[in-house]
Amino acid sequence: MLALAPITGMHELSGWGIAPAFAQEPEGVASEKVAVSSSDRQAMIDRAVGFLRKSQAEDGSFSSQGGPGVTGLVVASALSVGVTASDPVVAKGLAYLVATRREDGGLYAKGSRHANYETCLAMMALDRANADGKYDELIAGAQRFVKSAQWDEGEGLKPEDPAFGGAGYGSKSRPDLSNTSFFIDALRSTGVPEDDPAIARALAFVNRCQNLESPANNTPFAPLLNDGGFYYTPAAGGDSMAGKDEATGGLRSYASMTYAGLKSMVYAGVSKEDYRVKAAQKFLSRNYSVSMNPGMGAAGLYYYLHTMAKALDMIGEPVFDTEQGKKAWKQDILVQLQSTQKEDGSWTNPEARWMEGDPNLVTGYALLTLSYLK
To answer: Does the global pTM surpass 0.70?
Structure first.
């Protein structure tokens, strides 16, 4: 099994070739607007939960045409903002998720090609409702299932392979940082320790998704941009949703994946003082926004806000020192969410890429984000 210890002190940040920052916040945005109070935050939550009560299907699901993944995320989000497990909207959602259990321990739609993704989201929902241990057996089975879907020696890979340690939508789909981030979240939130071999393998994959020269990164992409940010996957020849840099051929970093990489490293036991964490923070300090996903524009905005809020909360930074100045990021996100919530309590993204035209999914992301903005 591959086990990587945190490596520190390898680089001085000022010595890296840092790529130019993406477009900055326009004037007159969140930080200059009237502050959002705790009662305003609760009002947003109440309106969003009210929307979910009306959009839930009779069988307890949300947007089930795409499998139970959205349901898992929505139920987890409701529980995260204080809705109880006995509340009808949550209880019905949990019952739907429990009914998706398969013989292999996974929690996914029959014949799904996204079994790993769906199981990880269901695990996080069940964990939040598991105060009395009633879901212990289900969660343990799901842990075994997602570990079996990880790309490792079982798939004939060696530790130096770019795909090693990663997780994809399903057991045979190309591993990527987004799914690996959900994989790490699901295992750690359900009690798997940071030194578990599956987490160590996942960290090896996460390291390879960072544009950073280091002993932990053996990809040919690492030295090309070397900006500390993260991209989608180094597997199968590598891919970034932000495209390739024309001058170097490097895979462009973008902010949502950088926050996903940052929180995954911390979850996997990497010190907050580690040079990899510092490099990611340096990239993000140059690319601060709450109204867009730097590197991707409006695409994936609400996924981005969720990963941003969770990562910065984990790091413990109430004020983020960016190259635009010190930012009260919680207040900035609150203002952004308040200004974009619809009259019916939902959120959607006009840039509908990655299913962000689905109000159930996006409202789930928004509630998860709000859970970190206390």
So the answer is: yes
